[in-house]
Amino acid sequence: MDLHYKVTFDECKKHTPIPLYIHNKRRRIGRRNGEVISCSPKEREALLAFKRGLTDDNGDLSSWRGDDCCNWDGVGCRKTTGHVISLYIYGGNRGLRGQISVALLQLRHLRYLTLSGCGLFGRISQNLSNLTNLVYLDLSFNSLLLDDLNWLSNLSSLSHLDLSDNNITDANWPQRILKVSSLKELLLAYCHLSDGTYSEEYLFVNSSSSSASLSSANLGGNDLTLRTLGWLSNIRSLVYLKLSANQLDGVVPHSIRNLTFLEHLDLSHNKLKRVAPGSLENLSNLTLLDLSYNELGQPLMELTGNLSCKALEELDLRFNKLSGLPPDFVQHRQLVELHISYNSLDGILSKTTFTKLDNLKWLDLSSNDALSISPFWNPPLNLNNLYLSSVNVGPKFPPWIQVLEDLWRLGLSSCGISDQVPNWFWNFSTALTDLTIPDNQISGTIPDLFSGQLRSIDLRWNRFYGPLPEFLNHTRSLKLSHNEFSGSISSICKLSSLVTVDLSDNLFVGMAPNCWENMTNNIQSLNLGNNSFSGEIPESLGLLEIVSKLYLNDNDFSGKLPSSLKHCNNLELLDVAGNNLTGTISEWLDGANYTYLKYLKFRQNKFYSDIPQEICNLTQIQVLDLSKNNLSGKVPKCLNNFVSLLHTNSVYGPSPIYTSFMYLDSPHMLVQWKRKESLYEGILWLLKLIDFSDNKLTGSIPRELFQLKGLVSLNLSRNALEGNIATDIGDMEMLESLDLSRNHLSGAIPTSLAQLSFLQILNLSNNNLSGRIPTSTQLQSFNESSYAENAQLCGSPLPLCPGDAVSPPASNPGESDEERRNGFMSFSVMQDLFISMALGFVFGFWGLMVSLMMKRSWRISYFMFFDRIGDWAYVKTAIFLASFRRN
Fold this sequence. Notes:
This protein is α/β, with parallel strands linked by helices. Among the domains are: 1-170, Leucine-rich repeat, LRR (right-handed beta-alpha superhelix) (Alpha-Beta Horseshoe); 856-887. The chain is built from eleven helices and 56 strands. The strands form nine sheets. It has a 28-stranded mixed sheet. It has a seven-stranded parallel sheet with strand order 29-31-33-35-37-39-41, with no helix packed on it. A seven-stranded parallel sheet has the order 43-45-49-51-53-55-56, with no helix packed on it. Helix 5 (200-206) links the parallel strand 13 (185-187) and strand 14 (216-218).
């Protein structure tokens, strides 16, 4: 699996800390002989010229005023002279942009220069080599062009260089880097680097001499191959080497064993097939080895047999194709973290596997479907994190868990457990913070949990039953869906720290508690769907001001939507489908400001009146389902306000809120799609759908609706819509499903409908459409039911239109006499040709036969000729088959 990712600022700086004095925003000015020392006017003007070359939207450089630049944020001066020696600007909020002014060259005493994430662009000047005192240079996370790195050779004191996330096009970059003999830390991640055009002999000689001090190199996220790994292996001073997300393809070479001082080696996210025997045997100082996200296909025992790294603490082999059983790792007793998930391991883990790894804190064997764990397994006693999802652990609840008294996180999803939870389980470890055991057949009740550290509980898709227990107040995530819990849910009213609550698909009945004011500051996702809650929706739900996802679907809620929901300005998803709610949509929208709402489902309720114009204020909407209600009036013309549906290539990906917090799930929703209800989870943001079906809408379909080029599914069926289908419908180029059936639409089917190349579902039946179905590969691929019950509609796949019956060529009404004569002449010529061919065959064939019958010598010669051809073919075939069998 290839997984390309961007390194974060913090990750790129790992093992290369910025000197502490650069972080000082304000520095004390120095004194000399009792006098205050301030920065020189020349250097002050240089800094102001640099500032003028930048656009500063957020005022990051607002402190740069006054006479003494030594008091400006990010500027550091030498105490004795007042010269500027450090400049630190990190524009992580992207409020800065512009070019690097040559005025910076006036700062001749500059030793530490950091301009990271400042939106800088343009070509780097060779004059940067004039800053000969630079020790630390960081221009990372910009859009700079570096087509010639020759200026680096003048920076004889440079020890730290970070040009990550820029565009380096200098084909000789390896030589340029190696010339900087003082360099200790090199970061060139995501710089579009290729191997370059360099001399192998030059690099072999110079990599061990010129860069003898280089200890850390981050070259991740480029287009480098194993050729680069070859010359890097000659830099024996390397301690940290990161080559993740490159084009390393094939076998990890023997040359890497030259890096005997290496402690951290990251070759993840490449296409490596195998680790060569002995290639890692000399890396006795290695503490971290990351080979995850490759294509390693050898037995795991063979790979680990090459590891003689007795200092190894972290081994990451996730997402490969490794087979066999995990070994005991006896020679790696210092292991702290071991990740072997998503491989092809098989067999049964023995009783003693991993037992001697006394330091092991993290073990992940998840998603090795053919791997089983014995109920008599002795796990490492000091484990803090254990993940065995999709590993065969059942059918009994594993008894060995109770010895793990220091366990923090336990993941046993989809492990084939079909047993009751033993009583000891809920109290076996007071240290347990995260419990994840969904997708099993585990049964039993849950006692009240008044002690312990549990913060995250995931018991979904099991057979737990009984009342909802009392949970700890610091619980953050509670996922109990698809079980058989019953009774009241009022016990969760005390959990003020909850962020995610999923109680859907259980047997809860009665009124939903009106106590949500206790959770106003934390809860962001609440799912009460598919239960039997009744009565009105609690008014206090509107106090959840930061809630982003609210599921109340498939219950027996009645009455109107509470007006307090208008305060939930952060809503991105609201699902109240399948209830008995009434009222108008206008009441719900009145005064509300749903700026972020993307997914709205009111399906199958009793909402009435028209669809208000205010609904077009939901500009970010992607799924709008108002089907199966009592809505009337016309389809609003302003639906082209839905910005996210206007474009074919949407830039509206998942909101950061779904990925930035560990307790939040991605949005999911049951959607009527391609004639059946389907669950969209994780990829819901890709779906763009409007469904107004099963209402009482009248009038024509507004042409503005057809401007939604990004719409994937449109359903307006079972209404009373009339008029023609506008030709603009052909502009909806992403449309995959279109249902306009059971209306009063009339006129012809637009020929532009044939342009919709992605169309998979089409239903125009039960209307008053007329004329010929446009001819195209697309429209004729649908069966008759797509066009049925349109009395005046004809053409394939329906019966042919009048005049389409198969018959001898007939003259067209507008055809001239000359055209008819030419047509007749063409037919006559073809007729004569066929007659001539038939006569030629008859006379030629029988002429040969008669000659053979009358002349005996000819007959003998003729058949002997065919005998020789048959013998030749037989011999050749026999020789070929014999040769084939030998091969």
